[in-house]
Each structure stands twice: as structure tokens, then as C-alpha cells.
Fold this sequence. Notes:
alpha/beta; Rossmann fold; Helicase, Ruva Protein, domain 3; 2 domains; 5 strands; 49% helix
Amino acid sequence: MYEAYWKLTARPFSQTAEPALFYRSRSVQSALLRMQYAIENLNGPCVVPGMTGTGKSALIRYFAAEYPRLRPFVHIVFPALSADELTRMILAELLTDTDVAVPASREAVFREIRSALRRHTLQGRRPLLFFDDAHQLSDEALLQTVLPLLTLAESDPNIQLSVILAGQPILLPRIRRFGELSERVTAASPLHGFTAAETSEYVQQCLQLAGAERPLFSDDALTALHDVSGGIPRRINRIGDMALLVGFAEQRTIIAAEQIES
């Protein structure tokens, strides 16, 4: 709606997790390095805790895009399932033959998962299991699905498997309650909100990628944007998008702090 007024080729503040638009803050860079080390050395799962909107899903999608060998990319979006339902879902995602029926018994499901992982490894692939909103995993799912998968990968030299669990900060304390699971965690990479300087850099990057040829936010607006959003990327996107709409409606030439605070 406002793109032509601000001479933009696209809306700059996307709510979707696009790898091409990914901004590397300090905490994101640290998380990427730890994840890379853990996965390249087959050292067990990574845990990525962070508040809602800090970019956990964007981080994992960017990581998967940078490492095409991590296939299939199994993205578990709704993990609040029973252990059996979750295990069957993972098997269905790992199977390359869609005509193969998922067996009924738990033991048979894990046998099929082992076979599927071996086939992928033999073909030069390394499956990546990404549990989004992993704080919603039940204790049953953690102990009867996630832990057996990790044990399977550890005990079978013919299997290469990478596992990432991302969720709210409560995820780490929950995992630490279970010694066998906690001992296998290679890296915990918390994501934090952007600093004031990072917020400014992020906004400028988004605007430039959207075709902006001049600054559209004043320094005071950028300071206000960081203060109001707490540096949380999702909030920055929402507030920045609305500020451009308000600025268009008011026929402003630049976004000031008052448009952010309104």
C-alpha cells in the first residue's frame, strides 16, 4: 500500500522467515557457530532457547539453506503430540517412498526410522530434525521419542543425524531435569533481542533490500523503535511496518519517534 509513496520495491519488514533477508546479530552469529561445530562434529543435539519473536525459526531455516547436505530437513512445527504420534510423524517425513505405510507398533516404527536414516546416510545425506516450539514437547515425547533418536544415532556408525530443539527459555531447565538427555546436549545457543546498534543496522538492511535510496527513519525514530520493541525482531517488523503506513497516511518525508510511539 505504501511502497510507491516511499519509493520502495517491496515491503521491507517481512513477518516470514526468509533466509535471504536474515540479519546476523551478535547472538545469532554465536548460535550459528555453535550449531555448525556441533553438527560438523556429530556431537549431539543443539538447543536454541529464546523469547517469542527473537528469530529462532529464521535462524534454523537460514542454517538449513546454508547447508544443503542437511536433508531431508524435517521441521516439526507442532510438537505438542504424544510420543507415538510424534515418532510416526518423523518416520513419515524421513521416508522417501510415499507408498510405504507407517507401521502400527512402536518397535516397528523405530526399525523403519533406523532403516530410513541408514539409507539417507548411504546416499550422502544427513537428515536434520528441527523441533520448533520444543518447549511444548511433553516429558513423554522427550524421553520416548527424542532421547531414543539420539541414542540411535550414537549407537549406529552407519547413521548421521542432526537434531536441533528450539523453544522458549523454559526449554533448557526442562531438558536439564533428565540427565540422559541433558548429557547429550552439545551446545545451548540462546537468542537475545537486538542491541540498539543492531536494531538500527537491521532496519537499514531491510530498507535497502526493499529498494530504499535514502534513510526513512530518523535517529530518534530508531532509538524509539528499539525501546518500544525491546530489540525483538518480530516486534521491530510489526512496528516498523505500521510506522511506514502511518507516515504514508500523514504524508511524512521521514519517520520520526512520534510515529513509532503512536
